[in-house]
From TrEMBL:
Keywords: Cell membrane, Membrane, Transmembrane, Transmembrane helix. This is DMT family transporter. The keyword Transmembrane applies. The chain crosses the membrane at residues 33-53, 68-87, 99-116, 123-139, 151-171, 183-202, 214-231, 243-260, 266-285.
Length: 296
């Protein structure tokens, strides 16, 4: 697979995720966040399981228990991101959620410093200031007006950053990318269902009413899109992957406006523009510097 093909796969992934924000928001009309997270990822697990079994029959090396443990940890990061994002949608808009989730593009390099001891490019710091300014404008010019959902979505971005970082570190050297998909979906699905049974009531009518959203989020946003993410990240660089995946925020805002009629004031649009610009700068500037260095 060429890098261009991999990047196009990641762009398709971002579009599917962007539409998924609408499905996630609509599902909250009939069921709780934990039930939705659990059910969507169990559907995603059923999508990934046949592929993982087929992959297992072709891989000659025995299952590495350390690798399986890593897959579970990635699943826990996915669960943290999915649940905080879903709870956040209770009190924030699809547009806000999609842009604030995209902050993981800036958080990934920061985590690289903490976890991998890699010094970030200088652009990280002005981009971080730009992102904070974007959040300020997205809140209408008053950070005090940020909703609980906005704050939960920022926490969600930290979990997504952890998941993307771990996949970037371990997926390229793994012979079991489909097993990684299946296991992270299973961990997330079981976690959601177990907690939902304890903390959230549900009715048959509520379940039936959310079936279209569960199927879209499970089959496409979770199952197909996360599998495409892992495939794409195996054939492109992490910075380029982050750029294309960050376009999820644009698709989310587009679908939110088209399907839910969401609108915001001028300051909100300025905030979205600053957030998206900061995400792109974090990835493009270091790549341009590398290209210039190689030509020299």
């Amino acid at each position: 697979m060429t890098r261009i093909q991999a990047n196009l796969i990641l762009l398709a992934t971002a579009a599917i995720w962007g539409a998924g924000f609408v499905a996630q928001d609509m599902a909250m009309e009939t069921m709780g966040p934990l039930w939705f997270v659990g059910l969507r990822f169990l559907v995603a697990f059923m999508v990934a399981l046949p592929l993982a079994l087929r992959e297992h029959s072709r891989v000659t090396a025995p299952v590495n228990h350390r690798e399986m443990l890593i897959f579970v940890v990635i699943g826990l990061a996915l669960f943290g991101g999915a649940t905080t994002q879903q709870f956040g949608l209770l009190t924030t808009s699809v547009t806000n959620s999609s842009f604030l989730t995209g902050l993981y593009v800036i958080i990934v390099p920061v985590l690289s410093v903490i976890v991998l001891r890699k010094i970030p490019h200088w652009i990280i710091w002005p981009a971080a200031i730009m992102a904070v300014t974007g959040i300020y404008y997205l809140s209408g010019g008053e950070l005090a007006s940020l909703t609980t959902g906005d704050l939960l979505t920022i926490v969600c971005a930290c979990f997504w950053a952890t998941q993307v970082l771990l996949i970037g570190v371990f997926a390229p050297g793994s012979e079991r990318p489909m097993a990684l998909s299946a296991i992270q979906f299973l961990v997330c699905g079981l976690g959601g269902i177990v907690l939902a049974i304890v903390f959230e009531p549900i009715t048959w009518q509520g379940f039936v009413g959310a079936i279209p959203e569960i199927l879209y989020a499970g089959l496409f946003s979770s199952g197909i899109a996360f599998i495409l993410q892992i495939i794409g990240q195996r054939w492109t660089t992490a910075p380029q992957a982050a750029i294309f995946l960050a376009s999820e925020s644009l698709f989310g805002a587009l679908f939110g406006a088209a399907l839910l009629g969401e609108r915001m004031g001028l300051l909100g649009y300025v905030g979205c523009a600053l957030l998206f610009t900061s995400m792109i700068l974090v990835e493009i500037v270091p790549e341009m510097a590398k290209s210039k260095y190689r030509r020299a």
